[in-house]
Amino acid sequence: MSQKPERRGIHVDQSELLCKKGCGYYGNAAWQGLCSKCWREEYQRAKERQIQEDWAFAEKLQREEEVAYASSQGPSSQPGPQPQAQATPPHAALTPFSKFEEKKTNEKMRKVTTVKKFFSPSARIAPKKEGHEGKTSSPSISRKASLETDRVSKDFMEFLKTMQRPGREIHKQCRAFIESMANKKDLGADELSECVQDFYQNLSDRLMSHFKGSSESVERVMDQVEKYIMTRLYKSVFCPETTDDEKKDLATQHRIRALHWVTIEMLCVSMDEEIPEVSDNVVKAITDVIEMDSKRVPRDKLACITQCSKHIFSAIKITKKEPASADDFLPALIYIVLKANPPRLQSNIQYITRFCNPSRLMTGEDGYYFTNLCCAVAFIEKLDAQSLNLDTDEFERYMSGQASPRRPTDNGGWPLEAGPSPQGGAAAAAACSVAVNPALAQLHHSLEQLSGLSERQDRLMEGARGLQEELVSWEEGVRREVQDILERYPLEVRPPPASAIDTENAETDRLPPPLTPQVFAG
Description:
Layout: H1 36-73, H2 81-119, H3 129-136, H4 139-161, H5 165-182, H6 189-210, H7 215-237, H8 245-258, H9 276-291, H10 298-320, H11 326-340, H12 345-355, H13 358-362, H14 364-381, H15 392-400, H16 425-434, H17 438-488
Helix pairs in contact: 1-2, 4-5, 4-7, 5-7, 6-7, 8-12, 9-10, 9-11, 10-11, 10-12, 10-14, 11-14
């Protein structure tokens, strides 16, 4: 491998993040580069064209059935053409159409059954499906979900009480919508998304007329409505069986695992993880993007993405000592996704795309960060040797695990592959052994720290043993000195002096002197 002093970063023009229709809103890869508004319009037009094509196909089948029926009844109608012609037209008109309806129904049921068999191994025992799911689900998870649903319902009722009469109407419509969605479990993900988005749009229009154009009030109410509805519908609409979201999740996880060797230098990320503050922000960003899967409301999942992005911007700002740019952000986000390998990443992206309030994805920082996350995932799926400025053979060796990337040198190049060198000897072998992939580099760094700690522990133990020897020698010296003093000045026990009877009386010195006899002349 030759050295590559010039490293090329990942650049995405900000205009590529916008809707391809030129409306100014953020687009989405799941919507073919369109925003939610333009995508719904395109979806409606495509749906209408499909309906028209179905009707045209139905009319064509009906005409063919009429011709076939007329040709089959032709020979028998020759003896009496007039009575037969009068009796058969009603049946000839109704029978082919009923056969067409029967064909369409059978075809639809056959497609649904095929899809269910493809995505669900236990589709043949559909009546026992709920019981089977109940056995496989964890009681603690179900209990937690039930508690969260009750808490969200209680918070929603408390919020609606502040609105009085309009609040009761909103609650009534939400309950009716949830009940109607319970009967639409057989619909596809796009149809379920269409139902939810239609409800959002209709309720938003009514609230706009009620609040007289106050978009902030409408947005506040719609946030609570979204939280309440999607918490109740989460189990039935997240990663439904009629989609291949689970298959995409596994493919993305395997892809990210295969790219474990990609280093921060290959992506030209402007973050120095040797700085403690930067390392902390990287860990927080990884935690946020992983925590996204534990949320049930699309708005909460978007909040995790926003927090992750803000930690990335903070890490870049600390490293560069200046505000981060958009060109710095996307490579860093790709690096975070590769390190985190978030669970069910595709399912979460599709869930947000289908059921989030469209205004959040079209504008604002949430929409910007979410669009960048979709771009990061698309880049990871299409990542190749040219994207990382590597040779094709080198890229294939890394992907197959036959080789590991080397650490960049000080001049920005990349060392040669490990191999025998006529001049290297032991030094070359040691240098090659240090060049490892990021995981092994971190392991090597940890081993170096453990080796340093072991050396410090050895020095500490050596000092402790020296201190112990000093204490023993000090004790022996004190004992010898005490013994010498005792030998030089032996202890003599003298008897106590004899004392008078009242010597123990401490108050005798205060008594007056004894009386003496006096002689008086007389």
